[in-house]
Task: structure prediction
Amino acid sequence: MKVLLDTCVMYPTVMREVLLGVAKTGLFQPLWSQRILDEWSRAAAKMGPEGQAQADGEIAMVSAAWPKAKVKSDQSLLDRLWLPDQNDVHVLAAAITGNADVLVTMNAKDFPRDILAEEGVSRADPDGFLIGLYASAPDLVETAVHAVHEEANRLSDRPWDLRKLLKKARLPRLGKTMSQTQSDL
Result:
């Protein structure tokens, strides 16, 4: 399955790391465009020069890890498409160009399902998308999430409760589902 990741799920860090960690398991192939990566860099720049430098380094690493993830849309496709926010047309164009099955975004209002369906693309929020993958391959998703959790604990001055970390990362349903599953064991 090919999945276009919108800027809003590439930045923040924990959400991106969970999504890309799951992608590393082979459950999906991530896609993005240069413009999505550039938007990520600009968003991080609001945190200051260090934020942008860190983002640029992370962008270089994800680009190296997934050299086939970057798609480039032609202008005729960009000109043909319409969305409620014209600044998001490039995201849909990248999804179409990359033959994405799913567009993962937090921005539901600017990506109406009917317009995406006309182009053969479905929309999912990252929490719902990951819950669906967890239902089909819990061991793979758990492995990816636990790796992110371990890294967050390593980088933090205090250990993170997994459910709280995922809630902060705007993945509350995944955190709840994983904590319920582990308490059932």
Observations:
- The longest helix spans residues 138-155.
